[in-house]
Amino acid sequence: MKPTSRAFKQNAHEALGDKNLQEALSDLEGGFVQGRLNAVNKLPEFDQLRDAGRDIKHHVLENLDVYLEIFEEKVVANGGQVHWCRSPEDARQKVLELCRSIDAKTVTKGKSMIGEEMDLNHFLEGHAVEPIETDFGEYIIQLADERPSHIIAPAIHKTKEQVADLFHEHHQKYGKSARLEEPRDMLDEAREILRPKYIEADVGITGANFMIAETGSTVIVTNEGNGDLTQTLAKMHIALATPEKIVPTLDDATTLLRILARSATGQEMSVYTTFSSGNKRPDDLDGPASYHVVILDNGRTDMVGGDFNDMLTCIKCGACLMHCPVWTAIGGHAYGWVYPGPMGSVLTPNLVGLEEACHLPNASTFCGRCQEICPQKIPLPRMLRKHRENAFTARLGPPQERMGIALWAWLAKRPALYRLATSLATGALRLMAGKRGSLKSVPLAGGWTHSRNMPTPQGGTFMQQIKAKRRAGGAP
Amino acid sequence: MSSARDDILGRIRGKLGADKRDASEQAVAERLKRTGPQPGQNPIPARGQLAAPERLALFREMAEAVDATVAVVGSLDDVPTSVTGYLAENNLPAEAVMSPDARMDEIPWADQPLLTLRRGRAEDADAVGITPVNAAIAETGTLMMTSGAETPVTLNFMPDTHIAIVQASQIVGTYEETWGELRGRTPRDGDGNFMPRAVNWVTGPSRSADIAKTLFLGAHGPRRLHIVVVDDNDEKT
Questions:
Q1: Where in the sequence is the domain holding B103, given as residue range(s)?
Q2: pTM, two decimal places
């Protein structure tokens, strides 16, 4: 999928003025944030589990190739196959090849962000295979031909009215002519329409929250049950994964599952957690005839052991989005690619290139809340800063911004000059303000004063105040 | 051109250091031997670690907290009446599809002649499914089911109402205990793997909040999850 992250500023501006979006994003603090906190407070071992989960993922990353080889061996022993793909293009081709191997006409899909990375739906459509998203959120945005705006709540940007319109428009062909008003009725109608799709589908594609080396299993987590109908009722199950999703044992997957739902939705456990190991056994009464795991790299192996290694421990719970003052203000689409919010701002430049995504590391107030609530304690702000440094070194970003940073750095490395400059600036601002307590505009800071006044500096610079206090024998 | 597989694995090893490959292999072999509860490595919440009667109480509390309904009966003989009572109360037809599992044969279904039972996997028209469970986990009120010739997993997902029959002695405190039980099964010939095609954890009936952040039960999976617990703990030695 082609990123539009270069237009981040424009996208964000438009998002802030989008009434529907702003309505859809209201009260996340009362819903998700409070919900997570309640779940966390009910489990005294939560923090201990976070540390254990982080250690598991770090251990895996330190031995990643060995774990992947063992996983593959176990999948094959279970009757499945693993397919390795360097790029989204390779992965799309592989999925199409698998579909064609059984003359597939339709594909049902459980939610998969890797499928989004591959832009799989458009590709399959273009090659005479009909993809049907079955997660209600994904189904809604498939009808709208949009991307997910959140990694676990893909249609969170849609209001009830917008969903009603979409269903009204797209469900007529199923003989549903009434425009529904109530979410309950909309859900029932979509369920009724999607149920036969599972049964007719040739291939069921799901994501994978974890891959387990001990048993060669892939794990999916859902609340709707769509992922299970997808993989059980189709002839072929394809699980889309990335290399870092490996965990050593069932116990390790369990440790991570204990923190995943609590962080994601504030549930103690999601409704359905399914461990899939291979295809239908000879005596089984149901299940897919074949089982495939597609492992897409797309630049992740380049992150192993480097500055962004910790990002590979992410379990995709989406909590950092829900707690981010930037994401909650502008939603996910403004970020311009698959992964939004703090985790997306760190991951995207690694996968699509910093040049393409150089605005994203700036989409942060550095409030640190993302790291605080991250189940894996990923140092997201530190990595955003690293991206900013890299962008500066690589001479990306607008010239004025770069010049400003260079000037500040030059000044900051010369303490005497810096003190003089700040002292002069403080005086100048005071002079400009006159008797007023604040300034309506400040030269070079129009963006800042556009929506608020700048308070007039009081009582000298920080260094001057410290010196004065020391002279007076006060605190250091 | 090298294969994508070799390329991806090679890149990873390149980052980790070719000289450390032997150490990695050893570390992984050691780590994979450490299954089952490992202090420190996999902390287990204290919540579920209780004696049998308290485990049942916790299981019930947690299952009800996620919108399942729970009925506790004294013996297998009471199950048919309990099931038909539940169906009548909810205005559901006295007709169900049930796992072709030997454990279900121990229940005297013939006592309820008006209840029509079919044995097998679920089909789209089935409104009610009845299944045994492999285990029930008190920690979160979760049911654990496995796929097999006698336990088709479609029964867990397709019918609008899922009725699960749980023996109190099947209620364990934590998920880890169920892995222990699976690992103890006769491994498959050849590779020693013990996993059935699918292991399902089910925690309450299906739900979705994808439309306007409003939560509703009954998404693609069952709208109702009813759990009949047979309190057989007294009989156990």
A1: 47-230
A2: 0.94
